[in-house]
Design brief:
Strands 1, 7, 8, 9, 10, 11, 12, 13, 14 and 15 form a ten-stranded mixed β-sheet that branches. 9% of the residues lie in helices and 27% in strands. The N and C termini lie far apart (79 Å). The structure holds calcium ion (2 copies).
């Protein structure tokens, strides 16, 4: 008895001693070892909304029912009792918003989300920049070409000379290639890596930035500012940012914000090789189908069914003999129709090298950044020695389950001269037995110089993106495909979105980034479907065919037509009215609430409607408890504005719910924010409304309580 008690005491003592020793040694070793010089710059131009934060309490996709931010702010799934100081949750005693989001009393807001190992920046289909000088591109492409809904989707991983790695997840296209050894390339910070998106385990466009330290542990680049000990033992205390990314506020914002980076400069037109023009080859002859498309270069494009087996159809845009040699930025044009493959593989054959990039054609063009369909795919040396071209085949990286419904689109390619050929870094390996081995250029990559690409220096804007949490199973990309040059002579607009209910998503999270060949997925959680409205993109071929002649090779500066003399659209902030669910449910008016969105200044009323039918963003939904009311309607077919009266024709099936506050009120609120609209008449799916002619508001009879 005494003996066993003694043993226990000894064990306890030793245990305590061990713990304290470990604590001390950990502190001692952490302090000097973990100090790292700041090396990160903002990974995108313009501002982003702050979405999910790095969870310092188990940032490895396991749920420990607790979220801790870098400030030490904390949220727990179960409300603490007694309640801590601060602001209680909107609904007493409910601290769990689902999907790993919990209430933080100290922040007075929801925190996102349990187990998150990176930071989600809300940027919609916008350029992604290298956050730091990199000496190797470790990976660039689909996480799993056969499963587009898991993990980071299309992503880029960079290695930095200090041993850190940065990952850029959920992208739509990449403009860089991997190489094998540190030192095989040089990518300066600010270099464009591709375009953001919502591929992989993601439910809305955003950038997932993941930073891993030299021990391959995920860390918070913002460091740790909490008063106590950082619960994440692998994290460093210091911020890794040289300059903070620019953030616009959303609920629970904890990260500091810095000035926004510029967008890439607008490049000159360069040399255009269009399908059908000299310099374009297809093999076998006529294997692609031709089709007229207003959004295509020259009004014509080609397409084919994609396949995952050996290609049966190849398109080539040749680098024309006689062109200046040097480094060129390359752009590929994606028309708004018949270009829906999620994994178009472009091969860039140049100066004896073969590089490849992947582009999710389905999300281009869109209203956010690539409005004209020209997607930047990187910079490459062209030696003029012949046999240099851009190639696209009908072999793609699509999922077999969906490939039958997709098309590979083939249109034009653009070469924009950047300057002299940039030297390739020499990677020297340590000698083995014979003299020093210098790797051949096949292992080196053209170092990209400074910044270039793409167009529009306008601050494109983000709609509140939904962070990667509820992966929607629906394959509807969230991009609106407003054909970039649709003329709207009247105010009659066909909405580019229709609402489709999302199916109940099943989430599978791979806890680490190690790629396991077996399908071990832990943990599998079924998430209840939140009433997310994923608008599906209806691609409409623009009937307005631009009567442009098919321009043959265009050269600068003897430029023929500069496409789109850049009617750079200006953007304005508009309000989008939704409903406060709590007030609505408990019948406490006013019910309406409003968020803001950026919209093109030439289509503000329709943007307000489009945004309404998209529904509240994730922050609005989860943090603020906002909902939209639809009463069975799914969208609208027409919006006409005449003499101060807006006529909105809804689609769907009118489903009254007995309340007198309906979708009609919301549509009216959304439209009346614009001074040119004094009255709003809402029509049902049969095109009827109670008072179609009078100078008054009007709702359909079916919504009359
Ligand atoms: Ca946690
Ligand atoms: Ca064309």
């Amino acid at each position: 008895m005494t003996r066993s008690l003694k043993n226990i005491l000894t064990a306890l003592l030793l245990g305590g001693l061990c713990l304290s020793v470990r604590g001390v040694s950990a502190e001692r070793s952490l302090a000097p070892l973990q100090v790292v010089a700041p090396f990160l710059y903002p990974p995108y131009p313009g501002p982003a909304s702050q979405e999910s934060i790095f969870d310092h309490s188990t940032p490895n996709y396991t749920f420990d029912n607790r979220i801790v931010g870098f400030t030490g702010d904390e949220a727990r799934k179960t409300c603490p009792s007694p309640a801590p100081p601060g602001i209680p949750p909107p609904q007493a005693g409910v601290c769990n918003a689902g999907a790993g989001a919990y209430w933080s009393y100290s922040l007075g807001s929801w925190m996102y989300y349990d187990g998150h190992d990176g930071i989600d920046y809300g940027i919609s289909y916008r350029p992604v920049y290298a956050a730091a000088d990199a000496d190797q591109i470790v990976y660039a492409g689909w996480w799993d070409p056969q499963n587009h809904k898991i993990n980071l989707g299309i992503y880029v991983r960079l290695h930095h000379s200090n041993g850190y790695n940065t990952y850029y997840g959920h992208m739509s296209s990449v403009a860089v290639q991997s190489c094998f050894t540190p030192g095989c390339t040089f990518v300066p910070h600010g270099e464009m890596l591709g375009i953001s998106g919502t591929t992989g385990n993601s439910s809305g466009p955003h950038l997932h930035l993941l930073v891993r330290n030299p021990s391959n542990k995920s860390v918070d680049p913002y460091g740790w500012q909490g008063s106590g000990t950082d619960p994440w033992v692998n994290n460093q205390r210091e911020s890794l940012w040289v300059a903070y990314p620019s953030l616009v506020s959303s609920a629970g914002k904890i990260y500091p914000s810095g000035p926004a980076l510029d967008y890439p400069r607008t490049p000159p037109t360069g040399l255009i090789v269009d399908d059908g023009s000299p310099g374009f080859d297809e093999t076998p002859a006529e294997c692609w189908n031709d089709i007229a498309a207003g959004s295509a270069q020259g009004g014509v494009m080609r397409f084919s069914k994609p396949r995952t087996t050996a290609p049966s159809c190849t398109a080539r845009w040749n680098f024309l003999p006689g062109s200046s040699t040097g480094t060129y930025a390359v752009y590929v044009r994606i028309p708004a129709i018949r270009a829906t493959t999620e994994g178009a593989i472009y091969t860039i054959r140049h100066a004896g090298e073969s590089d490849q990039v992947v582009v999710n054609q389905a999300v281009f063009p869109n209203i956010y950044y690539v409005t004209d369909g020209w997607v930047y795919v990187g910079k490459y040396n062209f030696s003029g020695a012949g046999d240099e071209y851009i190639e696209l085949t009908n072999r793609t990286q699509d999922e077999t389950a969906t490939i039958a419904d997709l098309y590979v689109g083939v249109d034009a390619v653009r070469f924009v001269l950047q300057g002299l050929i940039t030297p390739t870094p020499i990677v020297t390996l340590t000698p083995t037995h014979t003299p020093t081995v210098t790797l051949t250029p096949s292992q080196t990559r053209t170092p990209t110089t400074t910044f270039t690409p793409s167009r529009t220096p306008t601050p494109t804007v983000t709609r509140t993106p939904t962070p990667s949490r509820t992966p929607t199973i629906t394959r509807t990309p969230t991009a609106t495909f407003t054909p970039s040059r649709t003329r709207t002579p009247t105010f009659t607009i066909t909405p580019s979105r229709t609402r489709t209910p999302t199916r109940t998503p099943t989430i599978t999270r791979t806890p680490t980034f190690t790629r396991t060949p077996t399908a071990t997925r832990t943990p599998t959680r079924t998430r209840t479907s939140t009433p997310t409205i994923t608008p599906s993109r209806t691609r409409t071929s623009t009937p307005t065919r631009t009567p442009t002649r098919t321009p043959t090779v265009t050269r600068t500066p003897t430029a023929t037509r500069t496409r789109i003399p850049t009617a750079t659209p200006t953007y304005k902030l508009i309000k989008v009215y939704f409903v406060n669910k709590f007030r609505y449910t408990n019948d406490i008016p006013p019910f309406e609430v409003n968020g803001v969105r950026w919209a093109r200044s030439n289509m503000l009323p329709q943007s307000a409607l489009n945004e309404y039918f998209k529904g509240p963003g994730s922050t609005e939904r989860f943090s603020y408890g906002w909902i939209a009311l639809y009463n069975g309607f799914t969208g609208y077919s027409k919006l006409e504005i005449r003499d101060g009266v807006a006529h909105v024709f809804l689609t769907g099936t009118c489903t009254p719910d007995g309340r007198d506050f309906t979708i009609a009120n919301l549509i009216t609120l959304n439209l009346k924010q614009f001074p040119e609209i004094q009255f709003v008449k809402v029509y049902d799916e049969n095109g009827t409304t109670q008072d179609p002619n009078g100078v008054s508001d009007s709702i359909p009879a079916c919504l009359q309580p």
